[in-house]
Structure formats: C-alpha cells, structure tokens
Design brief:
Residues 1-17 and 32-42 have low confidence and may be disordered. The chain is mainly β. The longest helix is centred in the N-terminal third of the chain and has 9 residues, at 20-28. The chain is 3% helix and 45% strand. Strands 21, 24, 25, 27, 32, 33, 34 and 38 form an eight-stranded antiparallel beta sheet that branches.
Length: 706
C-alpha cells in the first residue's frame, strides 16, 4: 500500500500492475489513480481496432503486413457524458509466446477528454516476430480509477499476425485458351483460366485482361486455387495479368499469360432473304435452306446504308412465313439471333423469329404491347425482355442473346442494349425454326407483317461491338456545298444536286491571296473559312436556300456547316441552318446571345406555337476572327435522339430525347429561320462547307468532318 496526495485530500492507491514511472507520469497530467482494485462497472473500451481492422480473435484475427497502430475509444460508463468528467489515459499491453514463455510490452498514453480515441503505433524496436499470433488489450486510467482490461469478463483479447512475406508467383493455365502460338476460337466464346499459387496462405487473386479493369476472385478449395471466366470481345493477342494476395495484403509478383483469340465463329444459320422474286426457297449462306410460304414475297426494300440488298415481305397471313423445317439452335445453350426488320403494323404481338418447343415457342424475338404501346421483345422461357419503340415503316435491327455461362439474356435494338440484362431459365426447343411466326397451342400465330432481312443465328455470344456493327447504317451524303463561287447567285452542289440560291444580302467572299497576318491593315475576317471562299451574310436579309427539301426531317439525318459570327456581342438570335414547313422549322440551329450558346431547336409539329426540344452548347462569339465553329446536327430517329456537336464535341448537354420528328416540305435554309412574324433571325457572319446526310453520323464520323 502507498499513500499519494491528489485534489487536496489523501487517498489510498493499490498500484497493482501500474509502474511507479507510469503513476508519476499520470500524476503530472492531473490523472489521480487511487482505486484499490479495478472497478467492475462495465466496459470502458470500445472501437478497438488493429490497424484498420476491427478487433478479432481466432479465425477473425487480423493479418497485417506492417506494424499496426492499436486503437481504442475510452470513457467511464458512469460519466453519462458529463462535461466535467476527469481526463482519461490509455494503457495498452500486448504479448506473444516465445521460447516457452510469454513476451509482454506495454505503453501508456497521455491523458485526453473522455470519449477520445487513443492509439499506440507499434514501433520497430519491439521486434514482433513474423507469423506469430500476437494478443493485446487496453484499459483506462481516470479519476482515481483503473478500469478492467478490455479482455476481462466477457471481453476478448484482440489478436493479429504480422506477415511480411509475399506469396509465390501464381501459375495460370487454360484448356480453352492455351498459352501457345495457336489461334483459338474465339470472340464470343467463354474461356476458363485456372490460377494457382505455390503459397498456402493465398486468399484472393487480382487480375485484369490488358486494357480492362482490375478485378478480384477469391481463392477457394483446399488448394487455394481459383477459376477466372472470360468472354473475349475482340480478336488478337490477349494478355491476362494475375497477382496472388495473402490475408495480410502482401502481393506476389505479377504473372502475364498470353493467348491468341480468333475471330468469332460465323453464324450456324444465315438467310440473307435477298432471293429472286417468286422464289419459293430461301437460300442459306450457312445452315439449311428454308421453305417459303405463299404470303412471302422476295425483292422487297432494304435498309439504306447497309450491306443488305433486298428483303422478304410477309403479308401477316397464315401463308406469310419462312422455315427450314428443322431446329437450328440449342435454346438451352448459348445463342444469339437477330435480323433487320421493318414492321408494316405494330399492333398486337408480331414475331420476327422463333423456334418451336412442344405446343409453344422456346424463344421469340419480335414486338408486343406494353402499357398500350408497342415495344421490341425477346422472350426466353418464362422471361421477357422489352424496350425500344417500334414504328410502322421504320427499319430497325433487333437481336436477342442468351449466355448460358452467366444464365442471362439481353435485348439489342439498333446495336444498343435496351432494358436490363436479366437472369432467365431457358427451355429446350428442339422443334423447327420459324421466320415470321410463333407456335401456339392451336397452330402458328403472332405473324409478322412487313419486311425481314439478313437473319443470323449464332451458337455463341454476339458481343456488343459485333452487334453494333451488324446494326450500323452508314450515313449517305445527300449534298455538299463548298460555297467557293456563285455565278449568277447560284452556288453549286459538288455532285450536281440541288444548288443553293443566294438571296439579297448574301455573297461569296473570295480572297485568292490572303493578306499577311503581320500587316496591321490585314483583316482576318476576310480570310475564307475553308478553301478559297465562303458565304458572307449581312444579318439583314442575307441567306441561301435550296428549292426543295434536302434531308427527310421525319427520319434520321445529319447536317453540318462551319460558321463564324461577325459580331463580338450579337444583339439577337441568329440562325445558321434550318429546314421546315408552312408554320415553323422542323429543325433549326441558331446562336442565342443571352446564353452565349449554339442551340439546336427541334419542333414537334408544323403548327404555330408547337412544342420544341432544345439542346445547347456554350460558345463565345467569334467577333469576325478565327476559323469559326464546326456545327453538326444529328437526328437519330432509330434511337429517338438528337445531338448538337460544336467543334466535334457534344457532351451530355448536347443530347436530348426526341420522338416527334415530322417531314418538312421546305428547302434547306442557310442563314435564316422561321419566326412568328415569318422569315427572320438572319445571320451576320460567314458560313462554309455545308453538308447534308441521310442517316445519323456517328461520333467518330463527326470527328472526321472536323
């Protein structure tokens, strides 16, 4: 027993395990230790952590690769958060077995307010042995009390193992894609890669396929190995990089496994459906030839901008079908099926392709109704995927795929996934493959009315890039006006199409010998934007127009131009391109000074005051200098989307949904647009290199125009 003085009165303290040095230090901090014994009044410690890991023992113990800080939050549970509670200090203790005995180390912290966090960063001098279970606990010293150790009573000592050794380099092998010089089939076919490590403490592997994101897979089984599934999406030399990691986070040296992926297998069945008119058989590029019903007529129209030359038209009756009278795909295994289609009717349920199974189809691809509107549909087993918006008379490429390895199905419309990928339970369909109808209990039903072309069936996954390529429709150039000359006020189209007729206030500005930019009298505003000349508009009445429409504004189209504004501070909206009808413009591109932005305005009808969809891109005005801005309008009717590109960029703000395109009857206008008072919004500036396309330009094609 020893008496110490504190807070103006005498107290008796049983120091117990406290050292004299610790007691002296705490007394210097105003922490009086006077309790005869630990006070069993509940836990003082919470939030115990070994490094960044929660306190654990046994199977839950922490594994660390650097000496960790030990952490705890300490407070007297009897204080109830009183602001005048005495400060508290933490005493940490750790121990481990060594040479038949126990090695112990302690450390006591400075005092802090109750409820504070305390930590002890284990120093290197402690020389904690590797691969040994180390235990620790903590207790509080405060206001004359020594708390129980955190491991007392129902508590448990925290444990950790200090592991500094990295696992051995893993070994990778694959029967599907061996590491040799052979080209293995291929794109859209899953492969399994077996990964193992010579070390017995590996818990996971980190891997990536060169150019892809980092992924992890847990080590499983008694040998600590793992299998990695991979679906190659492009041909060529592929590299799998793998590292092994143990419980402490030590990583092995990476290993690179190289393998060669061949192009994807060709379709197991393909019917171009471009046979001669009157033919009663559909020739197959691969797979079996197909029988053709009397309600099917070859020689029908094909989607422009594709390799499809003609299609088959089905009349929607019981005679409108094409069938090889045999199955062509195992519907309970991986497969993909797609076709180009143009529905003549979008009512009810209509089938593009299916395969029989008993008294119903194993799968169907086509259209059906949802919430009173038509949607594209891929049904497999009891699951149906829907999306998109079929329109009568409009071409679309539809494709459904089932991946047996993942157990999921996906629907694509015009090369893009619609809806969500869904888990499915397929059924085995060993009946006949059908084009244009689906099997029912009382015979065939859900007949297609319209055109179908280029039906392809794969026994593998059609990967996303491949689907996009199948559905691609290259935009076709309809007109290009270089605006270099305008004899008699007529500027020719480069391929002999409709010319642009210049109105009053419009002229072609040519400068055959550009002035020296270092000459103070040189006016850069005189320089042609592109080539030897450009269209100069006075902002009062200047414009140029074609006599008839150039683009079909009711379908997909793209229009581009280079434009330079003459004013540094324009005082009104000015239109550079438009095409419209009697009451308004189907589309219009104008500069709006109030927002310093180019705007694409799409009206929803040729009516006064019709609703409009507007997308905009911020751009400072030119003020008559520089090379101008490249403006591109893209209306993708298949995706119900409009995009405004400025100098090759669209970003999020430059794209909007648009479903109400209408076919305009007026000519293409350069330099003016419709207003409530008639023609107006005349452009003050220069315009050059006007181009018009049928179809939607891709982002890469827009960049090519720049």
């Amino acid at each position: 027993m020893r008496e110490v003085s504190g807070a103006g009165r005498r107290r008796t303290v049983r120091l117990g395990a406290l050292s004299l040095a610790t007691a002296a230090m705490l007394a210097a901090q105003g922490v009086t230790v006077a309790a005869a014994d630990p006070v069993p009044d509940g836990s003082w410690a919470s939030g115990l952590e070994t490094g960044s890991q929660a306190c654990g023992a046994g199977e839950a113990k922490a594994y660390v690769r650097t000496l960790p800080p030990l952490r705890a939050v300490l407070s007297d549970p009897a204080n109830d958060g009183r602001p005048d509670a005495p400060p508290v200090a933490a005493e940490f203790e750790l121990w481990w077995a060594a040479d038949g005995g126990i090695e112990r180390r302690q450390s006591t912290t400075l005092a802090k307010p109750q409820g504070s966090g305390f930590s002890w960063q284990l120093p290197e001098e402690i020389e904690i042995p590797a691969d040994t279970v180390v235990s620790w606990h903590v207790r509080a010293l405060s206001g004359g009390k020594v708390s129980p150790w955190s491991s007392d009573g129902s508590g448990t000592a925290c444990e950790f193992v200090y592991d500094r050794e990295a696992p051995g380099q893993p070994v990778v092998s694959s029967d599907d894609y061996p590491d040799n010089d052979a080209w293995t089939d291929g794109v859209g076919v899953h492969g399994t890669f077996h990964v193992d490590s010579p070390s017995d403490d590996v818990v996971f592997y980190r891997y990536n396929f060169l150019g892809g994101r980092q992924l992890t897979v847990p080590a499983s089984g008694p040998d600590g190995a793992a299998d990695i599934d991979h679906l190659p999406e492009s041909p060529g030399l592929h590299v799998l990089e793998v590292q092994a990691f143990d419980r402490a986070g030590n990583g092995s040296a990476p290993v690179n496994y190289q393998f060669r992926v061949g192009s994807g297998r060709v379709p197991t069945a393909r019917w171009k459906l471009a046979d001669a008119a009157g033919s009663r058989t559909a020739a197959a590029e691969t797979g079996p030839a197909a029988r053709v019903g009397a309600g099917a007529a070859f020689g029908a129209a094909a989607p422009s901008g594709t390799d499809v030359t003609s299609t088959v038209a089905l009349d929607g009756t019981g005679h409108g079908f094409v069938t090889p009278d045999t199955p062509v795909v195992a519907t309970d295994r991986t497969f993909s099926v797609g076709a180009w289609v143009r529905p003549a009717a979008v009512d009810g349920t209509r089938t593009v392709v299916s395969q029989d199974s008993g008294q119903g189809p194993a799968f169907t691809l086509g259209l059906r109704q949802a919430d009173g509107k038509p949607v594209w549909s891929f049904g497999l087993g009891g699951t149906r995927l829907t999306g998109g918006a079929p329109e009568a008379g409009q071409w679309a490429h539809v494709l459904g795929r089932y991946d047996a390895r993942t157990g999921t199905a996906r629907l694509y419309v015009n090369g893009r996934a619609v809806g969500e990928e869904q888990p499915v339970t397929p059924v085995s369909g060993d009946g006949d493959f059908q084009i244009g109808r689906a099997q029912g209990a009382a015979g065939y039903r859900d007949r297609w009315q319209g055109e179908i072309g280029d039906v392809r069936v794969y026994d593998r996954v059609a990967v996303s890039a491949e689907v996009a390529e199948l559905a691609a429709r290259k935009a076709q150039l309809l007109g290009h006006w270089g605006l270099e000359t305008a004899p008699g006020g007529i500027s020719a189209e480069s391929n002999g199409g409709q010319p642009l007729k210049l109105g009053p206030g419009a002229s072609i500005r040519r400068l055959d010998e550009p002035c020296d930019p270092l000459d103070p009298d040189c006016d850069p505003g005189d320089w042609p934007l592109d080539g030897e000349g450009h269209l100069l508009l006075d902002g009062v009445s200047g414009h140029a127009t074609t006599e008839k429409p150039v683009v079909d504004t009711g379908g997909s189209f793209s229009v581009s131009a280079t434009v330079r504004l003459a004013d540094q501070e324009p005082d009104r909206p000015m239109t550079v391109l438009s095409q419209g009808g009697t009451h308004g413009d189907a589309f219009k591109v104008r500069y709006r000074p109030s927002t310093s932005s180019w705007e694409l305005v799409m009206s929803h009808a040729d009516e006064p005051g019709a609703a409009e969809t507007v997308v905009a891109r911020y751009t400072e005005p030119d003020g008559g200098f520089g090379t101008g801005h490249r403006i591109v309008v893209v209306h993708d009717d298949t995706m119900n989307q409009v995009t405004l590109y400025v100098d090759g960029y669209a970003e999020t703000a430059g794209t909007a949904e648009f479903r109400d395109g209408w076919t305009s009857g007026g000519g293409l206008q350069v330099g003016r647009g419709r207003t409530a008072e008639g023609w107006g919004e005349y452009l003050h500036g220069a315009v050059d290199q006007v181009r018009a396309f049928s179809g939607a330009l891709t982002a890469a094609e827009v960049a090519g125009l720049m």
